[in-house]
């Protein structure tokens, strides 16, 4: 969410120059009608025991739908094999079109038992919860852990994981399985060839880009077709400049939150990358895979992304690339938070639909995925951390994931955890992403981008049909 994260994110389209109008059908699809009766084919519960704490019907089949993006789907197939040793057969479905394929089934009341609700076509989880379409996962949290049998599942999860799955209540509806570290990704080898170290201030960043440009290398590239990727570095950048209250105000849809001086400074800094010609030519028209490929080819130094990128880009990554992630550069010494501040969170969401046939089996499948065998398999296979504390310790990690683990440790408590993308999906992806896209392609100036972001946020704040959240 990693993850990717998409293809992870293939729906959001650049909208008219403003980027403020949803793509056709987006509004209709972003919420789920509560129609459809209870699933008449629900299986009976099994007998609860020490080995079956969730009372799974051992003869019942299970249907699991996996988003086939940056993490692929083999890790899920491996988890099926563990599940089937004690329980029924698993029907495996993979797709990149989660909303297109799953939304109709949610409406009709015959959803699968587990949905990996990720990618550009992820369903609006907040709307699904509002319509009582998603199971409360508290039974899973209170079940014995398969990672550490002396603890409950809830006591093995990294800080923020449970909160990330809560939406205005104390119940967890969504399990974010991966723990994603976002930041500025680069090749250590490429920097060394230019006799550069990673720039810790914005002046140093501009100087690095200028040096690269002289050698025919762009400073930056990014997923131009999915401009919300910029949030991975912009959100922590302006939070670093102005403090945690800046992002909190934006998440809470407070009036004039986007007009904070820290946001203005961050937007102006990023716009300077465009103005000085440090963006790879053609970037506004490429997707995440194309941007990663150009980056791997040495066409650009820096790429805003999440820690799923090491797995997603593995086919085009040179062996001597030394993929590395760093926090966004500080603006200057006046920043409210240290350079080490990063954006990291539990991501790659899974849910158990309320009207699924085999709810207990769905939760057990997730419990197994949180066990030692599956968490370590996931990290080794797709080069990503999981939400289980300490699960990657002792593993031989690839360079990118190793660096992600290092900067997460260095950040300590200086971790930014935005909620805008969870609570107001269309606002985050389409409208704010669209405004940033227009700014980074030179269509509008930073002041206009801020104005559009604020208007979009104000429109959501005034819309009584949208449930509001606070942190």
UniProtKB/TrEMBL annotation:
Disordered: annotated segments: 33-53
What domain of life does the UniProt record list for this protein's source? Bacteria
Report the main location listed first in the record. other
Look up the record and report any one GO term of the cellular component aspect: cell envelope
UniProt keyword list = Signal, Transport
For whether the record's keyword set contains Membrane, the answer is no
Q: Which InterPro entries match?
A: Bact_solute-bd_prot1 (IPR050490), Chitin_NgcE (IPR022386), SBP (IPR006059), TAT_signal (IPR006311), TAT_signal_bac_arc (IPR019546)
Which residue ranges have biased composition labelled Basic and acidic residues? 39-51
Q: Where in the cell is it found?
A: Cell envelope
Q: Name one Pfam family in it.
A: SBP_bac_1
- Which family does the similarity line name? Belongs to the bacterial solute-binding protein 1 family.
Q: Which NCBIfam families match?
A: chitin_NgcE, TAT_signal_seq
Protein name (Swiss-Prot/TrEMBL): N-acetylglucosamine/diacetylchitobiose ABC transporter substrate-binding protein
Species this protein is from: Streptomyces daliensis
């Amino acid at each position: 969410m990693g993850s990717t994260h998409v293809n992870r994110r293939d729906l959001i389209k650049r909208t008219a120059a403003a980027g403020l109008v949803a793509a056709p059908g987006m509004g209709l699809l972003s919420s789920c009608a509560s129609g459809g009766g209870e699933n008449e084919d629900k299986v009976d519960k099994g007998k609860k025991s020490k080995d079956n704490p969730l009372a799974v019907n051992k003869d019942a089949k299970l249907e699991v739908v996996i988003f086939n993006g940056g993490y692929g789907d083999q890790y899920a197939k491996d988890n099926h094999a563990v599940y089937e040793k004690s329980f029924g057969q698993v029907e495996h479905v993979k797709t990149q079109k989660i909303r297109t394929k799953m939304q109709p089934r949610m409406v009709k009341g015959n959803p699968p038992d587990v949905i990996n609700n990720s990618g550009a076509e992820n369903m609006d989880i907040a709307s699904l919860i509002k319509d009582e379409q998603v199971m409360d996962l508290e039974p899973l949290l209170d079940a014995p852990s398969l990672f550490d049998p002396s603890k409950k599942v809830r006591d093995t999860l990294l800080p923020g994981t449970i909160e990330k799955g809560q939406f205005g209540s104390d119940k967890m509806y969504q399990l974010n399985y991966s723990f994603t570290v976002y930041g500025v990704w680069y090749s250590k080898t490429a920097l060394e060839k230019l006799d550069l170290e990673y720039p810790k201030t914005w002046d140093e960043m501009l100087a690095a880009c200028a040096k690269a440009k002289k050698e025919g290398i762009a400073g930056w590239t990014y997923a131009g077709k999915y401009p919300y990727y910029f949030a991975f570095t912009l959100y922590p950048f302006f939070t670093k400049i102005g403090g945690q209250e800046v992002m909190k105000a934006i998440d809470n849809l407070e009036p004039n939150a986007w007009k904070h001086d820290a946001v203005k400074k961050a937007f102006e800094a990023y716009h300077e990358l465009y103005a000085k010609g440090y963006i790879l030519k053609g970037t506004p028209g490429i997707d995440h895979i194309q941007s990663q490929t150009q980056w791997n080819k040495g066409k650009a130094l820096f790429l805003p992304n999440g820690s799923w990128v090491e797995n997603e880009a593995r086919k085009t990554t040179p062996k001597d690339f030394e993929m590395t992630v760093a926090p966004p550069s500080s603006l200057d010494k006046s920043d409210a938070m240290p350079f080490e501040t990063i954006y990291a969170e539990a991501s790659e969401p899974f849910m158990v639909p309320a009207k699924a046939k085999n709810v207990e089996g769905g939760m057990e499948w997730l419990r197994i995925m949180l066990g030692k065998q599956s968490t370590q398999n996931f990290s080794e296979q797709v080069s990503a951390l999981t939400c289980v504390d300490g699960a990657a310790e002792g593993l031989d990690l690839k360079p990118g994931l190793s660096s992600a683990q290092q900067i997460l440790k260095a950040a300590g408590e200086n971790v930014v955890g935005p909620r805008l993308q969870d609570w107001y999906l269309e606002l985050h992806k389409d409208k704010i992403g669209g405004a940033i896209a227009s700014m980074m392609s030179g269509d509008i100036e930073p002041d206009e981008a801020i104005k559009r972001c604020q208007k979009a946020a104000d429109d959501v704040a005034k819309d009584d049909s949208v449930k509001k959240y606070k942190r």
